[in-house]
Design goal:
Blueprint: H1 9-15, H2 18-24, E1 30-32, E2 35-38, E3 50-52, E4 59-61, E5 67-68, H3 70-78, H4 82-90, H5 99-102, H6 118-132, H7 135-149, H8 154-160, E6 166-167, H9 174-181, H10 186-191, E7 195-197, E8 203-205, E9 210-216, E10 222-229, E11 239-240, E12 255-256, E13 266-270, H11 273-286, E14 290-294, H12 302-311, E15 316-318, H13 324-340, E16 345-347, H14 356-363, H15 366-373, H16 379-385
Parallel strand pairs: 13-14, 13-15, 15-16
Antiparallel strand pairs: 1-2, 2-3, 3-4, 4-5, 6-9, 7-8, 9-10, 10-11, 12-14
GO biological process, one term: DNA replication, synthesis of primer
Keywords: DNA replication, DNA-directed RNA polymerase, Metal-binding, Nucleotidyltransferase, Primosome, Transcription, Transferase, Zinc, Zinc-finger
InterPro entries: DNA_primase_core_N_sf, DNA_primase_Znf_CHC2, DNAG_N, DnaG_primase, TOPRIM_DnaG_bac, TOPRIM_dom, Znf_CHC2
Length: about 400
């Protein structure tokens, strides 16, 4: 503020780094190249569309198009005029920023370069999972699924004789401290994406306030976790996968609760981990021979398609979300699983805007059987693939029964 009592706008800009203000507003920022990326809080964003600092002191969202300096960011976030946004920053109102945070800060520390051998990585992940499935955490996860998604996975856990969900708790560094006391080094925590380093050179938990599901390889080794946001006030992405680690690679990851179904079951390909849980619960409830699988979205690699084909020789069902992304994802699955690997499949059509978990919660477990028995031949998807050239079709005739 100047001697006359007016606010010096240039001084406000200089004292409030855009990176600090965005982080203080609840956005989880991660370094990539010369900028930081995070999910934009100005619209419904699950793809980390917000770029911060790529152009010095500016932000830009590739999703909604918003861009500007630190004042414009606060004005848009809080629905303020330019003048009010300047005053808001001047007073540090509700930003949770101390004078220490306003001081010039060094760039975010880079991830460690140490190599963690797979056996050690599996061991550390198991320690984290044991923490997140303590009775208090586990019961909270079960309760949240029942109350917020209409999903009861207790029968699934009883059938598998193991926990399939846990919860991290909402504290900033509980898991980090627990694992450190268990002998896990800071570099190991960072390398496995279980912790993140702050600008103050302290470690905090990567997954906070999230329901977690374990991702295991075909041998049962725990390679990583998918976290689903449960805090109403959090501005982070709804789902969070690990970054690439010594034992986790999203391009090869396949989330399923059963790696070796016996007797052989029909694979049901869905998008999200809660869809996997919902299909598994419906299968247990109705005795349907199904095993749900997910790649954590609509993307699919040839390796992931091979894994699905290897699960069972039975017909696989595509049950992706009822939206444009789901339809595009189904086409990619048809190309890899049906057209290239010659695995028999059928496509289940969900209503617009619905996913399998929603559908089953609304209509009950029997809705899964109806959804799959009404699945169709992938003729539409094959038509989309026609320009790519002919491919031999599977020899088996299409019979969409279970």
């Amino acid at each position: 503020m100047t001697a006359t009592g007016t606010i010096d706008v240039a001084d406000v800009r200089a004292r409030h780094r855009i990176e600090d203000v965005v982080a203080a507003s609840g956005v989880e920022l991660r370094p990539t190249g010369k900028s930081l990326l995070g999910c934009c809080p100005l619209h419904e964003d699950h793809t980390a569309s917000l770029s911060v600092g790529g152009i010095p002191d500016r932000f830009h969202c590739f999703g909604c198009g918003a861009s500007g300096d630190v004042i414009e960011y606060v004005a848009r976030l809080r629905n303020l005029t330019f003048r009010d946004a300047v005053a808001y920053l001047e007073n540090d109102h509700d930003l949770g920023m101390s004078s220490a945070r306003r001081a010039p800060a060094s760039p975010l520390p880079q991830p460690p370069t140490i190599d963690v051998v797979p056996e050690r990585a599996w061991e550390i992940n198991e320690l984290a999972w044991q923490r997140w499935t303590r009775p208090v955490n586990h019961e909270f996860a079960l309760s949240w699924l029942r109350n917020h998604r209409g999903l009861d996975v207790a029968p699934v856990e009883a059938a598998l004789e193991s926990h399939v969900v846990g919860h991290t708790g909402a504290e900033w560094a509980t898991t980090t401290r627990h694992l450190s006391r268990a002998g896990v080094s800071d570099d190991e925590l960072l390398a496995l994406d279980l912790s993140q380093r702050t600008r103050r050179d302290t470690l905090i938990d990567t997954l906070r306030g999230r329901l977690v599901v374990p991702v295991r390889d075909s041998e049962g080794h725990l390679t990583g976790f998918i976290g689903r946001q449960t805090l109403e006030t959090s501005r982070g992405p709804r789902y969070r996968n690990p970054t690439r680690t010594a034992v986790f690679d999203k391009s090869t990851m396949l989330f399923t609760l059963v790696s070796h179904p016996s007797p052989p079951a029909h694979a049901v390909v869905v998008e999200g981990p809660l869809d996997v849980l919902a299909v598994a619960a419906a299968g247990v409830s109705t005795s349907l021979p199904v095993v749900a699988v997910s790649t954590g979205g609509t993307s699919v690699s040839r390796d992931q398609a091979r894994q699905v084909s290897a699960l069972s020789s039975q017909r696989a069902y595509l049950a992706l979300d009822g939206d444009a992304a789901g339809r595009d994802g189904a086409t990619r699955w048809v190309d890899l699983l049906y057209r290239q690997l010659h695995h028999p499949i059928a496509v289940a059509d969900l209503p617009a805007g619905r996913d399998p978990a929603d559908w089953i919660a609304e209509h009950g477990p029997s809705a899964l059987r109806s959804l799959l028995t009404q699945a169709r031949h992938p003729a539409y998807e094959l038509a989309q693939l026609a320009p790519r050239g002919p491919a031999a079709a599977p020899a088996t005739a299409f019979t969409p029964h279970l």
